Amino acid sequence: MKALLIGISLAFITITCYAQDGTVKTYQVNSSIPVPQGDSVKLTIDGTSAYYQNTVKVDTGIGISLIYLRTLQFMAAKNFQQTYGYEQEGKEIFTSTQDLNTNPFTIGNYSDNIDPFTVQFAVTVDMKKERYRYTIHNVTFYRPTETGNLRMSLYEVYLRATNGDSRSIKRDSKKVLDAFEKYISSLTAELRESVNHKANIYSTKF
Predict the structure, then answer these.
(1) Which residue ranges of the chain lie beneath pLDDT 50?
(2) What is the CATH number of domain 36-202?
(3) In this structure, are strands 43-46 and 49-57 parallel, antiparallel, or unpaired?
């Protein structure tokens, strides 16, 4: 019995957060619940175009109709806007605007300055039986400056990260790319889980 109680207690992690009013809020997160691993994303450079693309195989028996429906439901839950959708063609296009930060927030650690940026992008999902291909494209970054927002395409940020005039420009641009790639890695992994209905919300065991 003692060993069982220890095992149960180890399955939970206590997280303490500080609210704006100074109060402390404590949450328990069940660490035994599997979290989807982020997908490996790779930047593709084609001339002056830059995009991310990958083909994902899904479980046997999942056809175009199910992939279409589950992709639409997932994107709607994420507040993405559908700009095109035709099930017979097996194609959907979504757009989104996200506010991200190059310095990930760490609980209890306020040493890193907040370095926000905004990114607009489109996601195209092409579907076939038991597989789909996503393409993340038309990516535009907006960085706040003293004179307004600096607008840069994904290709321009890539050039600054690889061929910047100074180390600081290269380092800053790479941080932007890393933050965005971390976000889309998580997004595409969650999409895969949703299409396969492997997330805990779809579990029939209760």
Answers:
(1) 1-35
(2) 3.30.530.80
(3) antiparallel
